[in-house]
Specification:
77% of the residues lie in helices and 4% in strands. It is mainly alpha-helical and 222 residues long. The protein folds into 2 domains: 2-77, Winged helix-like DNA-binding domain superfamily/Winged helix DNA-binding domain (Arc Repressor Mutant, subunit A, Orthogonal Bundle), CATH 1.10.10.10; 82-221, Four Helix Bundle (Hemerythrin (Met), subunit A), CATH 1.20.120.530. A 3-stranded antiparallel sheet has the order 1-3-2. The longest helix is centred in the first third of the chain and has 27 residues, at 2-28. It is globular.
């Protein structure tokens, strides 16, 4: 009996993961704004599934702090005060720097190839002026750096902070020039990462993220 039930369980798990991934992408690109309510019925219709996998996906994202319980029923995208956002970025800043330091020491040919590939996608999206495509590509670029550390726990922690701050970071891009500037800054960062010097890599990431976060904080104070 257990063997016959297993495929259904696996299929549901894949459905939950698909919904979770789609919602994370919506949040990270700003398609779902901070404070926005998520409707289970609407999501069930969107993904053509019952409310059970939708509810499970929402529960997972709530456990990660990406979503929070609403005042009445349901959940909404997490929103933060300027002070809370600054604290989140402070932590994320140090995590990104640590990732750069470790990745520079453990960089493999495969890791290099993946980072370059993700950067090429960033450049194409920026040159096309495609905000959503660039935001997704930028996430993938940083995730490739996390994976280059070879440490799955660091990857998990760093990725979680990127997901939580996604809708706030997306506000820094108002023009095509903003996208191009961000993509160009990756080139300098890659040189630092590939230097095989942990101090050069960590200092490079520190400078890269400090400039980014100051821009983000200003954009979210408007």
């Amino acid at each position: 009996m257990a063997e016959r039930e297993r495929p259904a369980v696996v299929e549901r798990g894949g459905t939950v993961a698909r919904i979770e991934s789609a919602l994370v992408e919506d949040i990270s690109t700003g398609a779902l704004a901070p404070g926005e309510h998520l409707d289970e019925v609407g999501l069930s219709e969107r993904f053509a599934v019952s409310r059970t996998p939708v509810r499970e996906a929402l529960s997972r994202l709530t456990a990660q702090g990406i979503l929070v319980q609403g005042k009445k029923r349901g959940v909404r995208v997490a929103e933060y005060s300027p002070e809370q956002l600054a604290h989140l970025f402070e932590v994320m800043h140090e995590i990104e720097v640590a990732c750069a330091r470790i990745a520079s020491q453990r960089m493999t040919l495969l890791s290099r190839a993946e980072i370059i590939e993700k950067q090429d996608i960033c450049l194409m999206a920026a040159e096309a002026g495609d905000l959503r495509a660039y935001l997704i590509a930028n996430e993938r670029f940083h995730e490739a750096i996390y994976r280059a550390t070879g440490n799955p726990y660091i990857v998990e922690i760093a990725s979680e902070f990127r997901r939580r701050t996604g809708p706030f970071r997306s506000r820094r891009f108002a023009t095509k020039e903003d996208l191009l500037g961000s993509a160009q800054s990756h080139k300098i960062l890659i040189d630092h990462l590939f230097s095989e010097d942990s101090k050069v890599a960590s200092d490079g990431m520190r400078h890269h993220m400090a400039n980014s976060y100051l821009t983000v904080l200003r954009a979210n104070l408007v």
